[in-house]
């Protein structure tokens, strides 16, 4: 059971990136996938979540309207499309799985670095 986040990089302010969270070893039918980020010196914060069954999405206020979370069923993958990036979005981004009916995110993947800088 593993999640792997990828797709980070260096982007200029106003630019876009798409992150992926690939699940292996389990299917996502009974899970929600959450995206989180942690900037240097700051606590980890929630970014967005996608409930696999039904497609319900949730966003942090700071990213709503700029970020979109979606899925690729054929690849057991959740995407995080990030548009109009700014310096405050610079962080290591992680994905994790929440079994429906529980309050805990688990199976944390290795993070991917997103740096927004000119």
Report on this structure.
This protein is an all-beta fold and 118 residues long. The protein has no helices and eleven strands. The protein has strands at 2-6, 9-11, 17-24, 31-38, 45-51, 57-59, 67-72, 77-82, 91-99, 105-106, 112-116. Strands 2, 4, 5, 6, 9, 10 and 11 form a seven-stranded mixed sheet that branches. A four-stranded antiparallel sheet has the order 1-3-8-7, with no helix packed on it. The chain starts with a strand and ends with a strand. The model has no long low-confidence stretch (mean pLDDT 94).
Produce a short descriptive summary.
The chain is an all-beta fold and 118 residues long. It contains no helices and eleven strands.
Q: Determine Rg (CA atoms, Å).
A: 13 Å
Please provide the ordered H/E string of secondary-structure elements.
Answer: EEEEEEEEEEE
The quaternary structure here is single chain
Average of per-residue pLDDT values: 94
Q: What percentage of residues falls in helices of 4 or more residues?
A: under 10%
Shape: globular
How many β-strand stretches? Answer: 11
Low-confidence stretches: none
Strand content: over 45%
Protein structure class: mainly beta
Largest sheet: 7 strands, mixed
Number of helices: 0
Distance between the termini: 38 Å
Search tags:
globular; 118 residues; single chain; mainly beta
Topology:
Blueprint: E1 2-6, E2 9-11, E3 17-24, E4 31-38, E5 45-51, E6 57-59, E7 67-72, E8 77-82, E9 91-99, E10 105-106, E11 112-116
Parallel strand pairs: 2-11
Antiparallel strand pairs: 1-3, 3-8, 4-5, 4-9, 5-6, 7-8, 9-10, 9-11
């Amino acid at each position: 059971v593993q999640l792997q986040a990828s797709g980070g990089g260096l982007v200029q302010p106003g630019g876009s990136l798409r992150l992926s969270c690939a699940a292996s070893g389990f299917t996502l039918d009974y899970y929600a996938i959450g995206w989180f980020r942690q900037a240097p010196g700051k606590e980890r914060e929630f970014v967005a979540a996608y409930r696999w069954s039904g497609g319900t999405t949730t966003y942090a206020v700071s990213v709503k309207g700029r970020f979109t979370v979606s899925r690729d069923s054929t690849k057991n993958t959740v995407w995080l499309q990030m548009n109009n990036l700014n310096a405050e979005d610079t962080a290591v981004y992680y994905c994790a799985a929440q079994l429906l009916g529980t309050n805990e995110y688990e199976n944390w993947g290795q993070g991917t670095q997103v740096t927004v800088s000119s």
